[in-house]
Design brief:
There is one protein chain. The chain has about 120 residues and is α+β, with helices and mostly antiparallel strands. About 20% of the residues lie in helices and about 10% in strands. The protein contains three helices and two strands. It has a two-stranded antiparallel ribbon with strand order 1-2. It is globular, with a radius of gyration of 13 Å.
Length: about 120
């Protein structure tokens, strides 16, 4: 994974170690063919986005101790799935993202210029 790239063609930066995120729970939004949900976009979670996400059936904030998951809190980062990001875009609720920690695979789903509009680390 050392050659993993972000959407800018640079080395992929970590998204979050606390809570530990990523499809592979390695702290990055690395995505490959084994990750059909494209958990590739590193978001900045806000109270508003977490409430929206829960309302549309993707509850990221409720702790699930059985999975060693404390829940995402406002101000934390998380690897969101590509389809959920697109849904939020369509609903006018897309979260801000960390573009340097967003895996290049997101470019299969969303245009780079759109991702740049939501980036808080450019």
């Amino acid at each position: 994974m050392s050659k993993a790239l972000n959407v800018l063609g640079e080395p992929l930066e970590p998204c979050s170690l606390k809570p530990l995120t990523g499809f592979y729970r390695d702290g990055t939004c690395f995505s490959d063919e084994h990750n059909p949900g494209y958990h590739a976009v590193c978001i900045y979670a806000t109270e508003e986005f977490l409430a929206y996400s829960k309302k549309v059936g993707n509850d990221l904030s409720t702790p699930m101790p059985e999975y060693n998951f404390a829940g995402v809190k406002p101000g934390q980062s998380w690897c969101l799935s590509g389809p959920r990001f697109i849904q939020a875009l369509r609903d006018g609720m897309a979260p801000k993202i960390f573009i340097h920690a967003t895996h290049e695979r997101m470019l299969e789903l969303v245009d780079l210029e759109i991702l740049k509009q939501y980036a808080i680390d450019l």
